[in-house]
Amino acid sequence: MIRVASYNIRKSVGTDWRRQPRQILDVLSELDADIIALQEVDRRFGDRVSSLAPQAIAERTAYKALRFGVRPDSLGWHGNTILVRKEMEVLRCEKIVLPALEPRGAALADIRAGDVRVRVVGMHLGLVSLWRRRQARAVLQQLKRLEEPLPTVMMGDLNEWNTEGGCLTHFAEEHHVVAPGPSFHSHLPFASFDRIITSPEIKVQDAGVHLSERARIASDHLPVWAELAFPAEAVAATGSRTAVAAD
């Protein structure tokens, strides 16, 4: 069983419009997930400095941050990064370029979690329906190009108002789209923007929205989570693999 989560942290700016990274770090600890996809981790302007320092993540939580940023002090690729528990092995990290009118991207990592290898994609899709569809297809096409198929979890802020259509149609063709529940706006959730999508062999045991009082003020999105069970064939083969460095 692996617990995953996705969280749009809005550059660590809370609903009181104060930037408080410690609030986000506390929510991450509350989630107690094994793997977390973060969106909007970096500041928007200037050097795009990460709103969460990798050192603070390592010191205050059970996670290590994978670095996808192209600038020295950025952590995310267009704001997307992935956190994993410190004991997990990272086998691959890749940036996915998404077609867009505005800068958009996705982050991909292959992770060994205990005896399971799993592929994780964190993404933040655009505000325009046409481009969200194109971005969904781009993510799926990139997955098909990879030489080794693995059980796959895609998650993030899809910005999709349609509960069944839109970009969800493309993901649902060969994957299971999980709707944990309304996660935006955190004060009064009414939209299910944040989704978790799994390849068919993964069984979703449970899923939901993290509704703590701290989460309601730490960002305008609430985190979503899912508990996943993997089939026997997903158990990693024995033998060493070269790990990718993480901060």
UniProtKB/TrEMBL annotation:
<dbReference type="Pfam" id="PF03372">
    <property type="entry name" value="Exo_endo_phos"/>
</dbReference>
<dbReference type="GO" id="GO:0016020">
    <property type="term" value="C:membrane"/>
</dbReference>
<dbReference type="GO" id="GO:0004527">
    <property type="term" value="F:exonuclease activity"/>
</dbReference>
<feature type="domain" description="Endonuclease/exonuclease/phosphatase">
    <location>
        <begin position="5"/>
        <end position="221"/>
    </location>
</feature>
<protein>
    <submittedName>
        <fullName>Metal-dependent hydrolase, endonuclease/exonuclease/phosphatase family</fullName>
    </submittedName>
</protein>
<dbReference type="InterPro" id="IPR005135">
    <property type="entry name" value="Endo/exonuclease/phosphatase"/>
</dbReference>
<keyword id="KW-0255">Endonuclease</keyword>
<dbReference type="InterPro" id="IPR036691">
    <property type="entry name" value="Endo/exonu/phosph_ase_sf"/>
</dbReference>
<dbReference type="GO" id="GO:0004519">
    <property type="term" value="F:endonuclease activity"/>
</dbReference>
<dbReference type="InterPro" id="IPR051916">
    <property type="entry name" value="GPI-anchor_lipid_remodeler"/>
</dbReference>
<keyword id="KW-0540">Nuclease</keyword>
<keyword id="KW-0269">Exonuclease</keyword>
<keyword id="KW-0378">Hydrolase</keyword>
<dbReference type="GO" id="GO:0006506">
    <property type="term" value="P:GPI anchor biosynthetic process"/>
</dbReference>
